[in-house]
Amino acid sequence: MVLCKLLGMGIQMKRLLIKYASEITLKGLNRRMFEDILVRNIKDRIGKEHRVEKESGRMYIDTVSSELASRLAKVFGIISVAEAEVVEKSIEGFAAAAIEQLKQKPQISTFKVETKRADKKFPMESMEISRRVGGEILKNIEGLKVDVHKPQCVVNIEVRDKGYVYTDELKGVGGMPYKSSGRGVLLLSGGIDSPVAGYMMARRGMELTGVYYHSHPYTSERAKEKVIELARKLSQFTGRIRLFVVPFTRIQMEIMEKCREDELTIVMRRFMMQVAEEIARRDNAMCLITGESLGQVASQTLESMFVTNSDLAMPVFRPLIGMDKVDIMDIARRIDTYETSILPYEDCCTVFVPKHPKTRPKLEEIRRSAALLSVNELILEAADNAELIVAEILE
Ligand code: ATP
Ligand code: MG
Predict the structure, then answer these.
(1) What is the assigned CATH class of domain 2-171?
(2) Distance between CA atoms of 232 and 172, rounded to whole angstroms?
(3) 183-391 domain in CATH 3.40.50.2000?
(4) Mutation choice for ligand 1 from 185, 186, 194, CB with most ligand atoms inside 8 A
(5) What is the pLDDT of residues 275-320, one digit of tens each?
(6) Nearest ligand to residue 289 Cα
(7) pLDDT in tens, 81-118
(8) What is the number of the ligand closest to the CA of 357?
(9) Which residue from 96, 117, 176, 375 lies 20 to 30 Å from 38 (Cα-Cα)?
């Protein structure tokens, strides 16, 4: 009813044509599962009332809204979203729509036509369709030229169950559907690196649970708000993220009191990992994720990572390990976390940094130092007192 009214007012129904990762279509027997997860994620993002139609490697959504496409472009697994016109499957039908769409782009002087023919019953091959529609365009619009190598505009024709013509295609974020590859605990600080690390694992389909260590009153409420905001920014891609804010002051105080100054950082990092592992266990997650990059700071040398990992059962994923800072910053800008990350609020690591942290810690020495504290009790206490926050962007 509402829809009829809208259409009556001249608002056009569009058909969004969604292309998704070819990796999904290669999944054999699991393909259906990946596709179903993708459909669920799409509906979570744009609303359950939308119908998602599936057809060999494509999905379609009919809508009158002009903002759905940009939201869909941020759903992992989606490679592109095009606003397509549904046309009669004939050269005349394709050409009329192509001419109409190109006329809306007077700034363009070169084009090419690309055709995909999934409907093999259609009596003409792709090349022939492209050639003939191209010819019609040239006849009808003055000043346009064909450029097959670097066209300013590509006219796409798809011959499927229905005929489609589109010239605008929004690039999607790609990757694999979120929640298709288990759950991991992301150690999310307020820095530049960890949100990027989380993004990369989420883009491969891993569901994220965030953990942030907060050292009240040494770290401010604003530092905590900043991390919540980072989780919110990530949720543009993932949908809601659960973030545990873990009180870390007692652990840090005890480390300060009982351990040597040059061992503070490494002992603290072992605690961070162990508490994260405890939270992961309780949350049915199977791995930890950090934003570490080889050699970036003292705690990110190979020796340090060996010592922080040694008493953990779960794998620790460090997707940024081989990346340079500038490349990490580029991704942070692209995913819109950078501006939040560079806000100058202190975090728990910057408050308690030793002047000369060990860069080559020895496992046995660090184990002995950590054992001066009641490790298990501290881990359980921190995990028990974690505050759960749900971060999500409301659109
Ligand atoms: P980032 O930019 O992600 O803060 P960093 O370069 O500042 O990283 P470190 O401070 O050594 O490096 O932290 C290394 C990793 O440890 C971070 O990427 C993050 O995964 C985790 N981490 C550090 N501080 C915290 C914290 N307060 N809460 C949760 N995780 C943290
Ligand atoms: Mg940091």
Answers:
(1) alpha beta
(2) 19
(3) no
(4) 194
(5) 999 999 999 999 999 999 998 877 789 999 999 999 999 999 999 9
(6) 1
(7) 999 999 999 999 999 999 999 999 999 999 999 999 99
(8) 1
(9) 117
